[in-house]
Amino acid sequence: MPIIPYTIRRSIRKTIRGRVCWDYEYEHILVDVSDEVAEFLVEDNKREQRYQWKIKKQMQDVRVHTVISLDEIIKSNDSANSDFPVSDIIEDTVNSQNCNPLEIVIENEDEEKHKKKAAIIEDMCALLMTKKQYEVWRYHKEDYGISEIAKLLSIDESSVRERLQNAYTRITKLF
After folding, report:
1. Does the predicted TM-score (pTM) go above 0.70?
2. Mean pLDDT of 125-147
3. Buried/exposed 84-112: b ≥16 CB within 10 Å, e otherwise
4. What three-state secondary structure class fits 64?
5. How far apart are CA 36 and CA 145, in angstroms?
6. What is the SS3 assignment for 31?
7. Rg, Å, the chain Cα set
């Protein structure tokens, strides 16, 4: 059986200059594990390294050079010798929600992916439907009512309903 190093992390409550805060204490031990567990841990480590690399890349993309913990305590230079957490002096004037910059980057990436997927689906729908069906479907997707679409295209409401029904039938066949 392989022997692997394992780190145990314990939360420790400390009082620093009259303020209660939490810190971590680490203990490194050796553990006997099965071959399957050792293989899983190797793969998990690779996955974690890729994740850390992606975070580093995203930070470079948004020009974040330093990350400061909001729980960090700053020593003041005044005569009162008062210390205070960073969170007391930092105010995010750009994002009122005070989001982590990496969360903003990830949200933007997700929005881009969503837009690309929506564009692909839109193109597939255009290919599946006839021109008349697609025209009615597009107006319907933009929240026009049946009667409004009929007036815009100068056709009967029953024709609009029929074209929409046929368009949705074609789409459901694909998915």
Report:
1. no
2. 90
3. eeeeeeeeeeeeeeeeebbeebeeeeeee
4. coil
5. 59
6. strand
7. 29
